What we know:
There is one protein chain. This protein is mainly alpha-helical. The chain has one domain (3-16, 35-166): Recoverin, domain 1. The protein contains eight helices and two strands.
Amino acid sequence: MKFFLTIITISIFASLVTSDDTTITTTPLPPAPASPESQQSRIRDSRNHFDECIKELNIPDSEIKYYNTPNLPEDTPIGNCLVKCVMEKEGFFETDTGFQVEKLYKESMFSRIFRDDLSGQFLEMIKECVQSADENQNVCKRAYLGFKCLKDKNEQFSREIQKNKLN
């Protein structure tokens, strides 16, 4: 697993929000299981986006190993901009407008398979991450902090749901 797979995980299991005034309905859609072919295509696209960002940011070959990991890159200017670049290429973030709510929420598995209260809880969790990240003026840092918060909260949310399933 590589960093770019973390981006895929977020896109599949999470969604992002731009601001509090964004209205998104949480009515579950019918589950849309991804075919193995579409999953493989998504992984290929994400890998290509990651590779393009490595080139665009002129990250030397000797440093790629620090970013080509299952973990989130270090909280450094290059790591922050790598996250921003990949998220932009995936369509989840834009420099001018920030996190792309509609696209990510609609792609979110949580928005499709959970009842309204869980989907709504997830949406509120996302709003907290974005609002916190939006306090940062540096666009790369903002993308990084939002993504990190989302990743951490997504893991926590998933654990809570799994725990509740077992009880």
